[in-house]
Amino acid sequence: MAVSISTGVGSPAVRSRRHTSAIRRRYAPLLAAVQPITTPPNSPVIEVNAFTTLATLAERCGQLVLHWSRSGMDTFLVLDEGTTYRYRTGAADDVATTQHLGHPSTPAARTTNTGLPTLPLTLRGK
């Protein structure tokens, strides 16, 4: 009789928690823990494909990366001159979680609470 035990080590939720922990360790000086906020009205929200992109934007803008966790999702924001740049881990569905973990697939444009579309952004070079 064969017995199979699933530990969840490879599950998207576990990978997401590990990814968030790695971000928090590596970028601790750049992070500011905050309570969840809503994006400013009429402010475009740009989804970035990798946290390193968000960190680069924060450094170039002289801003901290705002961070909070809620409902199994970690949100990281940079607010700069009327534009909100966002990176998320721990998305509820496996597809979004896989995309946020740095896989090459590009997420489809999404909309925010302002009704404005969000677009993926990746910085290349300096």
Morphology call: globular
Order of helices and strands: HEEHEEEHEE
Our Rg estimate from Cα atoms comes to 16 Å
Strand order of the largest sheet: 1-3-4-5-2-7-6
Largest sheet: 7 strands, mixed
**What is the count of β-strands?**
7
- Overall pLDDT metric: 73
Percent helix range: 25-40%
| Unreliable parts | 2-8, 93-120
What is the total domain count? Answer: 1
Class derived from helix and strand content = alpha/beta
Distance between the termini: 59 Å
Strand content: 25-35%
Number of helices: 3
Descriptive account of the structure:
The protein is an alpha/beta fold and 126 residues long. The chain has one domain. The protein contains three helices and seven strands. Strands 1-3-4-5-2-7-6 form a seven-stranded mixed β-sheet. A hairpin with a 2-residue loop joins strand 4 and strand 5. The longest helix is centred in the first third of the chain and has 15 residues. The radius of gyration is 16 Å and the shape is globular. The N terminus is likely disordered.
Short description:
With 126 residues, this protein is an alpha/beta fold.
What's the layout of helices and strands?
Blueprint: H1 12-26, E1 31-33, E2 45-48, H2 51-61, E3 65-70, E4 73-80, E5 83-89, H3 94-100, E6 110-111, E7 117-121
Parallel strand pairs: 1-3, 2-5, 2-7
Antiparallel strand pairs: 3-4, 4-5, 6-7
Features:
alpha/beta; DUF5305 family protein; 3 helices; 28% strand; seven-stranded mixed beta sheet; single chain
